Amino acid sequence: MNKSLIVAIGAAIVGALIVVTYNKLVPLAPPPGACPGGDPHCIEVHVITVNGQAQIAPIADHYVRDPGAVISWMIGTSGYTFPSDGIAFNKASNPPPTSTEFINCHNAGADKFQCTDRKQSLGTFGYTVKLDASGVPPVSSLDPFVINN
What we know:
Elements: H1 2-25, E1 42-45, E2 47-50, E3 53-56, E4 62-64, E5 69-75, E6 80-81, E7 87-89, E8 102-107, E9 112-117, E10 123-129, E11 132-133, E12 145-148
Parallel strand pairs: 1-5, 4-12
Antiparallel strand pairs: 2-3, 5-9, 6-11, 7-10, 8-9, 10-12
């Protein structure tokens, strides 16, 4: 009887350690729902915690097929806002975007940023996402891509 009790307690401890370790090493998936349904050019921006550090969740490459697409970035994590340079296209892209490729980039509210992609050039354009934090852990910027094809 004592041996069974010791084995059960040991198994419970091992199981608890596995759950704690898993939750520390594997980030939670960001919650859905920041973008309104049906907007093909809305990109959700979430903050997740990895190994105890807040960071912007990875953002998939965004494909644009039509000129004049208005791309919106929406923050889905409370406590964060876009600064005035919340989205900045990188000159190091290949090819580098012209000054008229992505226009009218601006804040469209505290949790939304917009740019118009004129799609003058085909290519993969890198950009930087920056967030301001108010009362929550700050995060480093993230560098995903918009692909005009």
